[in-house]
Amino acid sequence: MKHLLLVGSCVCCFMLGALVGLPSLHAQDGNQSTTYYQISFMKSRPGHDPVKMERDLWKPLQAGRLQSGQIKSWSVMRPIFSGPHEYDYITVEAYSSLDAMTKTDYMGLFEKYWGKDKIQSSMEQTEQARDMLGNEVWVTVESVGGGAPSK
Length: 151
Fold this sequence. Notes:
The chain has a four-stranded antiparallel beta sheet. Helix content is 41%, strand content 21%. The protein has helices at 2-19, 50-68, 98-102, 106-114, 119-129; strands at residues 36-44, 73-77, 89-95, 130-139.
């Protein structure tokens, strides 16, 4: 009987959840205050200082992107309290649209901020300092203070 009640409750909750619309998740809503976050999960390589590498190589490039309006912000974050994860830091890029995120000319940025002759060595320096374990894209759907949710 308890098993049947549990299954019935799960089905009921699923059905109610399916009936509730989530208009705030639609990417094509035209809301100018929507922020999309690309989160990259990084694992430091032994004997290297990835924060110094991020600061020296990537921060000037990201500062230029911020100044030109390509991004809303860029951050490097380390967990203080966290569960068991393979990554030990993340980078977060904030965008005002999905187009801004997907239509980035990285080769142009590398040439501008690193110079054509230093692209290869800069990428090698990056790869020596850390491994990128994966990426996720997030959007705010509800908040108090801080960033506005998409509508």
